[in-house]
Amino acid sequence: MRKAEFVIILILAVLLPFTPACRGEEEKEGAHELEEIIVTAPKPEDVPDYVQDVISPEEIRRPVMSGSVLDALGNQAGIQFQRGSLSSSESGKLRLRGFNENRLRILRDGIPVHRDGSFGNGPVDWSTLSGEDVERIEIHRGAGPAKFGNTLGGVVNIVTRKPDEKPETSISTVYGSHDTWDTKASHAWKIGPAAWSLSASHYETDGYLRNNFTERDNFSADLSFDLSGGFEMGAGLTVSDMENGNPVYNRPDSPYYKGGDPDADERELGGPGIGARLLQGAFAWGERSATEDENIAFTAFGLKKFASGHIRTDFRIWNQDRHEVYYDATDSNKKIYERDTKAEDDNWSLQAEAVFQLGAHRLEAGGEVQRHGWGEQTVRFIDESYFNGSINFFKFIREGFKGQPDTLGYYAAYVQDTWEIHPKVTLEAGLRQEWFEADSIDSDAFGFDWPAEVGELDENHADPRVALTVRPWEGGSFTARFGIAHRYPTSPEYFWWYLNNGTGFFNTDFNSEEARQYELSYEQSVSDMFDFFVRGYYYDIRDYIASTFVPGVGSVYYNIGEAEIKGTEIGVSADLPYNLRAWANFTWQEGDKDDDPWDTENQLAGQLADFPEIMFNAGLDYAYGEKFTARLWLNYVDDREHFKGRELTELDAYTLLNASATYRVCETKHGKWDLLLSAANLLDEDYEEEEGYPMAGATVIGGVRVSF
C-alpha cells in the first residue's frame, strides 16, 4: 500500500469515532442525540411506473476512482461493465442485459446524450457526467413505452437536482490510489421566476496501466425562467476538456517492457487507428502519447403547462475537437505522429412531447429528429520512417480526410395511451413510427481514392408496444410487456461496413436490428420494509450487428442472422434489526446466435461473445440517521468468451468486495461537513472487464464534502 493511501485511512479511522458534534449558538434548545433510524429509499412520486430501479443521490455521490456516475450503476441487476481503465475515460463500457450503449438510451433529464461515436469516440462519454448535481438515476429495461426508440436494451435517465428557493451549494474533494484527485462543486438556487444550477469538477489520476494518466475539467450551467401563462423556457451548456494517456503495450515480448507496471495491451484512444500501419505495430509508441478532447454541448427547451398536462420541446447540439500525439517508444521527446480531428461536427437532436391526463387515460404523443456525421481530420506531423507501406494505400494516415457531416438521419413519431381500466389494472398501448436514412459516402470523406460500390440505406418501421399491469393485493403487481423495437446503425458501424464493402474485404448485406421482446415480472413490497422482484425476459433479434477488430484492416461490422437473449433477474431487500438493511440481486442470462458469417466454424458454439451467464450483487447497509452511513457489498461476474480477431479467448470470473462510509462531522445552520471514504476490490482480485486490460487491485479514496 502506498504512503498516501495509508495516510488517508489512518486519518479517517482516527476521526470517525471521536470527532465531536458541532457546538455553538447553532445548537437548538433541548438538543439531544440523534435517534437511531433506518433511511429507506422508496420510489419518488414523480418517477414513471415503467421505471424499474431508482438509484439514490447518496449512492451516486459516493466517491469513486472514476469520478463519474457510471460506478453508481454497478450494483443493479443485469448491469455489466467492460472498462479498460479505472478512469472511465473511454466510452461504450456499460452493458444492460447484454446490450451495449449503442443499444441503450442514455438520457440526461430526458434528453439523449449519445454522441455520433466516430473516430473511436463511442456512444457516451461517462467522464463528463459527474454525480454532484444528480438527484437520481432511473433505469428501465427492455422495450418500454412508445416514447423510447432506437433501443433494444432499455433506458438510463440521469435526473439532475432542480433548484428551489433555498440555495444549495456543495463542495467536495477526495484523494486516493494512483494519485487520484477528484474535486467537485455545485450550486443551485431559484429566485422568483429565475432558476439556475452550476457545477464544475477537476479530476486527475496517474492511472493503473502504463501511460494511462487522465486529467479533465468539466463545467455545466442550466438556466430557466417561469413566464406568464404557464410558459417556461431555459437553456444549458456543458463543457469538458480532458487529456488521456494512450496505454502503452507492456508485455514481456516487448523490447520496452517495464516489469513494474501491469502487463497490458496497447490502446489508441483516437481513431482511425495507426497501430496497424506502424513498422513495429503495438511496440511503436511510448510514454507521453496522449489524446486530448474538448467537448461542448448546448441545450434549450420550451415548456407550456396546462391544468391537465404539458407540451415540451428540447433541442441539443454538440461538438468535439480531438488532438492526438504519439511519441517514440525509446525516446518520449521524439514525436512520430500528430493530428487534429473534428470528431463531432455540429451533430444535433430535436424532440417534442405532449402529455395530457384525460379521465382514466394518460395520453402522450411526440417525436424526435437526430442528425449525425463526422468532421475532417488533419495530420499535423508524420515521421514516415516509422510507418509501413500501407500509408500509401491508406492515405488518411498520411494526409487526413475531409469527413462527411450530416450523414445519418433518424426520425420518429409516437402515440401512447396509459389507461387505468380499474384501480388494480393498467393497460399501456402505443405505436412508434421510425424512419432512418444513411447517405452514400464520398471516397474523399475517409481518404480513399476508389468509389465504394454501395448505395444508400433507407428504412422505416412501425413498432407496437403493449403492457398490462395487475395489482391483485396491496404492495404486489404483475406486469406483462411485449414490444417490437429497431436499432439503427451508428456512423462508425455504417462507415466501417461501407469501407469493407469498398475494399472487398468482408462484403455482406447490412441491415438495422429488429427485436421482439417479451417480459413477465412480479414485484412485492411490505410496509416499506421488504421488497422483492422477479423478472423473466426473452429477445428474438434479427440482423444483430456484430463487430471485431482485424490487425492491418481495422474494425469489421456485419449482421448475424439471428440472436436470442433470455434471462431472469431476481432481487430482494429487507430492513433488519440494528439499523441494517440487506439487499441482493441475481441475474441469469444466455445469449445464442445463428448464421454468423464471421464465426463460420462456430467456435462460440452458438453463444454471443463477452456474455457472462451469471451475475450477482449483494450488500449490507447501515444508517444512523444522517450522522453515519456505511455500505459493504460484493459483485460477482461469471467467465466470458471473447473474440480477439479470429482467436477465441476466455476471461475469468471475478468477485469484488467493496466498502464505503460517510460520517457527518459537523452540522450547523451554516453548513454540513461530511467525511467520505470508499474502498474497492478489498480482496485484491486480479481481473479483467475487457480482454487485455487488467483492472486495478485494492484501491481507496477519501476526503471531505461541505454542503450549505
From TrEMBL:
Domain TonB-dependent receptor plug intervals: 53-155
Region (Disordered): 242-267
Cell compartments where the protein resides: Cell outer membrane
A GO MF term: siderophore uptake transmembrane transporter activity
Family annotation (InterPro entries): Beta-barrel_TonB, Beta-barrel_TonB_sf, Plug_dom, Plug_dom_sf, TonB-dep_rcpt-like
Gene Ontology BP terms: siderophore transmembrane transport
Presence of keyword Transferase: no
Membrane topology note: Multi-pass membrane protein
Pfam families: Plug (PF07715), TonB_dep_Rec_b-barrel (PF00593)
Span of domain TonB-dependent receptor-like beta-barrel: 233-682
GO CC list: cell outer membrane
Keywords, sorted A to Z: Cell outer membrane, Membrane, Receptor, Signal, TonB box, Transmembrane, Transmembrane beta strand, Transport
Similarity comment text for this entry: Belongs to the TonB-dependent receptor family.
Protein name: TonB-dependent receptor
